[in-house]
Design goal:
Helix content is about 70%, strand content about 0%. With about 425 residues, the protein is mainly α. Helix 11 runs parallel beside helix 15.
Length: about 425
């Protein structure tokens, strides 16, 4: 009996080992009929293939797998769960978020658009409108900061609109934000091409637009960490430039420039503090609102911050310094250095034409030769910074649209690298 059982045990063992090697075996003769390609490779070779760089590269493009969600939940409840489980990498450090809050959205609206606003309404209208819009923005960002700390989800204020107000309101807000960022990117790219014309008027602007588009695309290929490091550098340059301009403006106004002329508040009396009366004042509000656009970007960083409960309250408090220092103080300096009837303010081809920048005009009027070039470099950096922020904000907004069911499902695609 023992001699008969041994061949049967041996046959079962062979069949079992064949099955574990992904090989189909006939129960009658034990001959394999087909085998997979992986069975031909040794185990150690297959492990090396799975740990190779090319394998990881291919796997990284696969969408992130989500846990199953109760199908009985409503659309709003489902969207809230998806946003809270967003598999985004938390690689934004505290220093990144602080600089994003201070200077990420400072671009053509301040450096160039303020020139057309000055020509339209005068220096007093400039300060009043930017001040009123700044107060509204400050209150909004403080409320956004509290919600972002309590609910650090992907999509930020876009999710809050659907969750706490109405899905209809959330739909409108989300698509409005997405279209805003989509329009802002080409605007800033065109502005970068026009900025280069300050030095090179022969090369077609399309070539420079293409170059800067590639630069912004390369930065965002590295994910949120690449965006954070680039934005930290860009914002730092803008902060140093604005502070330097304020110090220089005070010196020039007091007669410390090459020409030694004391200006004081002369241009507030001649040609005057207001231009076109109440109509001019209302017109400046449009430019002021555009200049502050993007301040809410700090709320979108909640889902990708290493420690949102610590970083976001500090970042939202920095907004008041941005409004007071970068906008109000710098625009007051511009108002005392450049009269609103200056011909250069009126000769700009568009709102992104740097030849109409009051910052550059103020330095030109002082007779300083080198600083206008430096200021134009800063404007170029600011333009690229806002374009970089537009890519970041638009991608997160589109993802939020998909999570809330306001857009196609492929909007929710996030690869395994987050």
């Amino acid at each position: 009996m023992s001699e008969k059982k041994q061949p049967m045990a041996l046959e079962k063992t062979e069949v079992k080992s064949s099955i574990t090697n992904n090989t189909t075996v006939s129960s009658s003769n034990g001959i394999p009929r087909k085998s997979s390609s992986t069975s031909e490779l040794p185990n150690d070779h297959r492990e090396k293939e799975h740990h190779s760089g090319w394998y990881k590269f291919k796997e990284s493009f696969k969408p992130m797998e989500h846990d199953e969600i109760d199908p009985n939940l409503s659309d709003i409840e489902r969207a809230n769960i998806l946003s809270s489980r967003a598999p985004l990498q938390r690689r934004l450090k505290n220093r990144h978020i602080q600089m994003i809050a201070i200077g990420s959205a400072i671009g053509t609206g301040l450096f160039v658009g303020s020139g057309s606003a000055l020509a339209t309404g005068g220096p007093a209208s400039l300060v009043i409108c930017y001040g009123l819009v700044g107060i509204m923005i400050f209150c909004t960002i403080q409320a956004l900061g509290e919600l972002a700390v309590a609910f650090p989800v992907a999509g930020s204020y876009l999710i809050y609109s659907s969750r706490f107000i109405s899905p209809c309101w959330g739909f409108t807000m989300a698509w409005n934000a997405a279209l805003q960022w989509l329009v802002l990117l080409p605007l800033e790219l065109v502005a970068s091409g026009m900025t280069i014309k300050y030095w090179d008027k022969e090369t077609n602007s399309v070539a420079w637009v293409t170059i800067f588009y590639v630069v912004i695309a390369v930065i965002n290929i590295f994910g949120v960490r690449g965006y954070g490091e680039a934005e930290f550098t860009f914002s730092l340059i803008k902060v140093i430039a604005v502070v330097g301009f304020i110090i220089l403006g005070i010196i020039l106004n007091c007669g410390g420039g090459p020409r030694g002329e004391y200006i004081g508040g002369e241009y507030w009396h001649n040609p005057g503090a207001f231009h076109s009366g109440f109509k001019g004042l209302c017109t400046v509000f449009v430019t002021a609102a555009f200049s502050f656009a993007g301040t809410e970007l700090v709320g979108l960083t909640a889902a990708e911050a290493e420690n949102p409960r610590k970083a976001l309250p500090q970042a939202t408090k920095q907004v008041v310094y941005r409004i007071a220092l970068f906008y109000l103080v710098s625009l007051i300096i511009v108002g005392v250095l450049v009269p609103y009837d200056n011909p250069l303010l009126l000769n700009g081809d568009s709102s992104v034409d740097i030849t109409a920048s009051p910052f550059v005009i103020a330095i030109h009027r002082a007779g300083i030769k080198v600083l206008p070039d430096i200021m134009n470099v800063v404007i170029l950096v600011a333009v690229l910074s806002v374009g970089n922020s537009a890519v970041y904000g638009c991608s997160r907004t589109i993802s939020s649209l998909g999570d809330q069911g306001f857009g196609p499902k492929w909007f929710t695609y996030i690869d395994r690298q987050g």
